[in-house]
Write a sequence for this structure.
């Protein structure tokens, strides 16, 4: 930049200096011409004065006087008659000179015009300046006096002065260039500093500031740039904060979020979307086409459909799609920037669990209705029969009452289990559930005591084996009791006569292990993974006979879930079953 400005200044200076030289040259030459013209006119006037009072235009006396004038003025003086013939010349022989009538200065004199004439003289072979004047002497004769001077001397002087001027101007030009260089450099240094500063800011170094401030426009500019850097730093900080906020929201949001551009290329994708769509964490999918990343035809159709809509015609589109093994509610919205659709936001909500729960609830309602209907129908049938008075035999009537009582008990048990189940299903209840420190061995012994009559009916042995130092547990007392009742009563129900039910209580690491085992009918392997489902029974007839509701193990599982516990089952048909509970020690 400095070089460019310096070159421009030097060029301007050179042109100015040249123009000044040319102007000075022509001006000086004109001045010279004017001075010479004046001298020639004076000589012509002098000669004119000398001969105007004479009787003849030319005489040897006149010639002498003219020669004196010519010598004094260093001019050539010529007398010419009206026919153009040279009568006398101070430098040349008149007879050798040709007719001068056609000379321009002679023509001017004849017309009475006193005007200088510059031309090459064929007589002297020099560039000359001429002035001629017509005079009429006292004798009545008319003639022309012409004075002339060579321009050579003047040319020499002019050339010499031109050389001097060029020399001076050259020196002036060099000095001016050096001075300009110094001034330009001192002006350009702060501008270069500003350029470096602006470059750093543009490169993202918003902390950079300028420190030197001049008291001129550059200082003003420096201050403005510093202010600009302040605002840029502020805006950048705000932007980074917002970005960080947005990033953490996107990172922690449970919904999958994907932003794509108009060409379906992924511009942003959050962690949840990676997880939901089973994209390997280390795979970079940004700038990849969404269809290439998620190979799902329905999603492809949905994306191409919405991206095909004219702008602003639809802002949102929601659908439920099955991707892999999950069900997603997918919402695609347009990103509108200044009335132009610049891309789309795809929000994925995994609703697999919601749908599963919905279907579980539907199944539950259907099962409950069915389970309730069976004892009610049975009770109703027996009551109708008794009401009609068709049963006269006392023993049969008593049997009927017995059955009605049993079905009513089953109904009550079923309603109780359903209520427990729905209580445990409600997350609000779990939060407010009372928990206390319990001695598991004591609680289990109480349950065994309550169930010993049932066991006695089948002549079953009931044993509790507990280590000496069994840890306490934090549990809801009623639910612990119910859980153990369900497991031990199942062991009794599904045992053969004379069998043994054993409850083993021990500590393993920091966990409490409770094993309920029997040597009863066992559970086939194919049913093992389903026995904790609601209303699932291996042998429906037998279970019903035993007065089971099909909810016992589902309740156990639920109770354990709400107390951070776990249950496992091992069983072999006709050999027995072992349920193993693992609980945290209090
Ligand atoms: P139910 O009220 O019918 O006993 P549960 O949920 O308690 O319902 O048990 C589900 C099913 O698991 C039972 O119907 C039975 O087939 C099987 N089951 C549970 N405990 C045992 C056990 N100790 N031995 C054999 N089968 C069992």
């Amino acid at each position: 930049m400095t070089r460019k400005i310096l070159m421009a200044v030097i060029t301007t200076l050179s042109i100015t200096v040249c123009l000044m030289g040319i102007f000075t040259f022509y001006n000086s030459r004109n001045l010279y011409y004017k001075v010479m013209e004046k001298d020639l006119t004076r000589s012509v006037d002098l000669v004119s004065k000398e001969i105007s009072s004479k009787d003849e235009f030319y005489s040897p006396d006149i010639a002498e006087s003219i020669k004196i004038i010519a010598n004094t003025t260093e001019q050539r003086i010529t007398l010419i008659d009206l026919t153009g013939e040279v009568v006398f010349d101070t430098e040349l022989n008149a007879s050798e000179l040709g007719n001068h009538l056609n000379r321009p200065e002679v023509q001017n004199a004849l017309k009475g015009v006193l005007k200088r004439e510059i031309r090459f003289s064929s007589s002297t072979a020099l560039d000359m300046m001429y002035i001629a004047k017509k005079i009429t002497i006292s004798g009545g004769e008319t003639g022309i006096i012409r004075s002339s001077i060579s321009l050579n001397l003047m040319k020499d002087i002019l050339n010499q002065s031109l050389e001097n001027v060029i020399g001076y101007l050259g020196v002036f030009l060099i000095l001016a260039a050096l001075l300009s260089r110094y001034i330009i450099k001192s002006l350009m240094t702060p501008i270069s500093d500003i350029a470096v500063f602006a470059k750093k800011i543009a490169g993202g170094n918003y902390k950079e500031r300028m420190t030197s401030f001049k008291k001129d426009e550059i200082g003003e500019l420096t201050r403005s740039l510093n202010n600009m850097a302040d605002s840029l730093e502020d805006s950048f900080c705000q932007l980074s904060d917002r970005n960080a906020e947005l990033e953490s929201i996107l990172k922690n949001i449970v919904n999958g979020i994907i932003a794509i551009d108009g060409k379906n290329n992924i511009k942003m994708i959050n962690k949840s979307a990676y997880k939901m769509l089973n994209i390997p964490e280390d795979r970079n999918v940004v700038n990849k086409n969404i269809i290439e990343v998620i190979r799902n035809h329905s999603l492809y159709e949905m994306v191409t459909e919405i991206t095909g809509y004219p702008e602003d015609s639809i802002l949102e589109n929601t659908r439920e799609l099955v991707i892999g093994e999950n069900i997603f509610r997918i919402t695609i919205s347009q990103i509108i920037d200044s009335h132009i659709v610049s891309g789309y936001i795809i929000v994925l909500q995994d609703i697999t669990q919601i749908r599963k729960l919905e279907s579980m609830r539907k199944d539950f309602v259907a099962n409950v209705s069915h389970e309730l209907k069976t004892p009610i129908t049975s009770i109703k049938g027996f009551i109708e029969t008794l009401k009609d008075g068709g049963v006269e035999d006392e023993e049969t009537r008593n049997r009927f009452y017995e059955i009605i009582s049993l079905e009513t008990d089953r109904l009550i048990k079923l309603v109780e289990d359903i209520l427990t189940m729905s209580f445990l299903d409600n997350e609000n209840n779990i939060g407010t559930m009372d928990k206390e420190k319990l001695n598991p061995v004591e609680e289990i012994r109480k349950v065994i005591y309550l169930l010993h009559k049932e066991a006695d009916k089948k002549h079953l042995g009931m044993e509790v084996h507990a280590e000496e130092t069994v840890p306490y547990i934090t549990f809801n007392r009623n639910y612990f009791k119910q859980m153990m009742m369900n497991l031990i009563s199942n062991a009794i129900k599904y045992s053969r006569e004379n069998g043994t039910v054993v409850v083993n209580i021990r500590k393993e690491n920091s966990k409490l292990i409770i094993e309920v085992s029997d040597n009863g009918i066992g559970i086939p392997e194919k049913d093992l993974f389903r026995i904790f489902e609601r209303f699932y029974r291996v042998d429906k007839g037998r279970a019903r006979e035993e007065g089971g509701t099909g909810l016992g193990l589902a309740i156990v599982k639920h109770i354990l879930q709400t107390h951070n516990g776990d249950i496992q089952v091992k069983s072999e048909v006709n050999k027995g079953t072992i349920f193993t509970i693992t609980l945290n020690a209090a």
Observations:
- The chain has 16 helices and 17 strands.
